[in-house]
Each structure stands twice: as structure tokens, then as C-alpha cells.
Amino acid sequence: MGRSIQSTMAPRGQRVDWVDYAKGFCIVFVVMMHSTLGVEQAAGQEGWLHAVVEFAKPFRMPDFFLISGLFLAQVIDRDWRTYFDRKVVHFAYFYLLWTAIQFAFKAPMFVQQHGLAGTGWLYIETLWEPFGTLWFIYLLPIFFVVAKLAHSFRVPAIAVWLVGAALEIAHIHTGFTVIDEFASRFVYFYTGYLFAPRIFALAARWREFPEAMLAGLAVWGLVNALLVFHGYAEWPLVSLALGLAGAAAVVAVSVLLSRTDLAAPLRYCGRNSIVIYLAFFLPMAVSRTVLLKTGLITDIGTVSALVTLAGVVGALLMYWAVRHTFLRFLFERPERFWIAPKQRMTLRTAPQAAP
After folding, report:
1. What is the distance between the alpha carbons of residues 25 and 265, in angstroms, rounded to a whole number?
2. Distance (Å, rounded) from C-alpha 66 to C-alpha 172?
3. Which residue from 125, 172, 211, 281 has the fewest beta carbons nearer than 10 Å?
4. pTM for the complete prediction?
5. Whole-angstrom distance, CA of residue 222 vs CA of residue 216
């Protein structure tokens, strides 16, 4: 599989333009979801952006995980020490760091609600129950390890995929984020890994037929909207089909966008998607509070859109402000936290295999 994937994607170390657009597309939708729901909860009413968030729900995270698996074949045969460093320790560092940062901002509220002892226990719980918005980078290393184990023990790839599909179809709800999200999302990650050659081949072919792609996207958009807004999107089998179809649609849209530079800011967001993912919570919360308290804008949908913009741009501004200072450890893992020989790796250059 590794050779066939290598033949259909850019050489190692080079970026694939449509992949960056896809990640940019999805990170904006992730920020939009958190921003919109937060604004609506605080305001006690829904805005026009709520419909967009609902439309994107079937494919928002499936596409993120599918993209995360696309380049796995390039590294899955590495020795365990190197693999564990790149795919587990790397994300564990940023999870622990940004959990501490996010928790510190929310600690005063937790102390009021639960007291000091209760707040301390809540923090300890973040070791096995992912905190807030950070569940993605908690879960991603687990996916990498499971895929590596299956590969090492020569478990048939199609069997792994079928188990993943069955878990998604089962709609498991235990109340534990790791279990529930693993069951819901692993199939998409493994789809990216297993079918990467076909995905890259389709992307190359779709680039040559933009009119046909637009027609196909129109049909998909109509079907997705009908199923979402009529309450069928979360039915067993339907949710899996919509997740896979939506991920394919995001690839198609990204291929279309990559034909020009008109959406270059979106591509830049994709190249820095993990930076946005880690840091958007702070500018999102600040802008939401300011806009709602001042009351300068009364339309809730518009407020949600502005908070989304603030979350994305604010996270990038934070990154730009610290990347050449001693605070760069916020977005770049220091050498003392590496357990394997390395080439210099930052969150900005690393995540072709991450969000």
C-alpha cells in the first residue's frame, strides 16, 4: 500500500495544495460550530448561522479524521520509538500544555461551582476524559497506535475497516468521550489511510472536470440538507454514508479551490489548522463576551460569524506574536520533550497528518 500511495501524492516533505484547503475548510467549520453554539447559548436564541453549523455536522469531523489518515502509509513502517514520538508524544505534549492553559481560564468558575477539591479532581480527570475542545488531539494518537498495531500484527486492513464501520453504525453512547468518539470516528481515519491512493487519484481526476464536480456537489448538498433538516442524518448507516460522502465533497471543493489563489487565506488556515485548533478558544470567548455585552450588534447570526472570524484570526495572531520568542513552546515542542532523533518539527510544518 505504501508504494501505491507514494506514487499518487506529493513527495515526502512537500505539501499538497488541496489537502491544505480541506483542512482550512474544516477548521473554520469547527471554530464556527463552537462559536455559534456558544453565542446562542449565551444569548438564549438561535441565529442564521445555526443552519450552516447543522448542515456541516455530518462531515465536519469525519473529514478532519480522514485527512489525518491520508499520509499515514508514509510513516507507519517506522520503528516504534520514532513512531511513538511523532504520533503520540507530539500530541500528548500539546494536549497537556493547552489543557492546563484552558483549565486555568475556567478554574475560577469551577472553584465557585465545585470548590477547590472538586476543581482539582476535575483537572485530574482530564488525563482520561478529554477537556473541552481538545478531544481531537487526545483521540488522534490513539488512532495512530491502533493502526500501527493492526499493521504490525498483519490484521487484514479491510477487516479493520469493517470493524470501524460497524462501530460507527452502532452509535455507541457510554458517556466516556474516548470510547464514544473512537467508535464514531475511527472508520474515517482508517478510510483516509486505507483508501489514500484512490482519494489522491480521484482528486487528480476531479481537477480536470470542474463542471462535473460542481454538478455532483449540488446533488450532494441537496441530499445532505434534506437528510439533516428532516432528522435522518444520525440514523444508523445514514450517518456513515453522509460522513463519507461529505468528506468526499470537501475533497472536491478543495480541489476546485486549489485551481486558483482566490481562497489563499483558507489554505493558510489549513497549513496552520492545529494552531487555530489549540488557541481559538481564547479570542472566541473574549469576542463573544464583548459583542454580547456591548449590544452593538443585535443579530445573533452576525455575532456568531464575527466571533468565528475572531477565533480564527485571533489564534493566528497569537501564533505570530510568539513564534520567534521564548513563548514559541506554545506551538513548538521543545527538544527536551523528544524521545527519538528528529528533524526540526513544529505545529506549522508537521500536520499533513494532523488537523
Report:
1. 10
2. 20
3. 211
4. 0.91
5. 10
